[in-house]
Amino acid sequence: QPLYIEGGPSGPMIIAVTESNNVHALNATTGTVIWQRHLGTAVTSGLPCGNINPVGITGTPVVDLASRSLFFDALIDGTTKKHFIYSLNVDTGETNPGWPVDVNATATYNSMTFTSLIQEERGALALVNGIVYVAYSGYAGDCGTYHGWVVGIDINNPSNVHAWATTAIGGGIWGHGGVA
């Protein structure tokens, strides 16, 4: 879902993200590009199942107008396939200090460790009291021993990561509207 933001230095803008891990900021009046970013190669193969190809930025981002920050999850291909939660300055497209956050490296709950290879992020992100929340489920086809996860990151201190996961295998937070 595209986002509309008023009050930027270039006027009102539309932010749109893609499954190819592209982020575009467009002038909402003229449609001209304000800035754009490519954040890494999206995943096109090697997942145990799923119905999206490529898989990159799937869930709707969220904006914190007070800090002029955009938050979203991107699945990046590489030596391993990992979910990263990004924060970009909405006016410039630059990555904010301390971001992105590697979800594999930071999200744990009880004895469970987050594994991007079997976790999909579909729902919209939420921002409450300075914490950005990202919900995860499995890929279409229900492959692997995935759990539903909710990861929360302090937007002013991205090294402060909280996580919760369902104890049952195959649980998931599937709602496109995100965490309520």
* Number of E-state strands: 14
End-to-end Cα distance, whole Å, is 17 Å
> What general outline do the C-alpha atoms trace?
globular
Helix/strand-derived class?
mainly beta
Average pLDDT, all residues: 93
Summarize the structure.
The chain is mainly beta.
Record the SSE blueprint.
Elements: E1 3-8, E2 11-17, E3 22-27, E4 33-38, E5 62-64, E6 69-76, E7 82-89, E8 101-102, H1 103-106, E9 108-109, E10 112-113, E11 126-128, E12 131-136, E13 149-154, E14 161-165
Describe the fold and architecture.
By secondary structure, this protein is an all-beta fold. It is built from 1 helix and 14 strands, in the order ββββββββαββββββ. It has one helix spanning 103-106; strands spanning 3-8, 11-17, 22-27, 33-38, 62-64, 69-76, 82-89, 101-102, 108-109, 112-113, 126-128, 131-136, 149-154, 161-165. The longest helix has 4 residues, at 103-106.
Features:
mainly beta; 1 helix; 14 strands
